[in-house]
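My current task is to audit a protein record that another person submitted. What it holds is a sequence and that sequence's fold in token form. Thanks in advance; the entry in question is below.
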Amino acid sequence: MPEMRFRILWPDGVAETCYSPSLVVKEHLRVGGSYEPPEFLARCRVALNIASDRVQEKYGHACSLALGQLARIEEGCAKFAGRPDARVSVEAFEE
């Protein structure tokens, strides 16, 4: 199963590299895309849950790394809740 990383830039300028056990993230985010935190979270939630489900199907257990990454993204987005100017940018995909 091909894993990948995707680099993001939080609204406060902090860069972070995120993990996915599947390339499915590419179907939900785009490099150069800029998303309001709730939309970014929704897209990541769908993609990382699909990725974890694929691991479940192949190996018989959910992907704790994908679910942990989703929890981290949830925490990050919560910091910017209610800020209409906040945007999360996707800088790169790394396969």
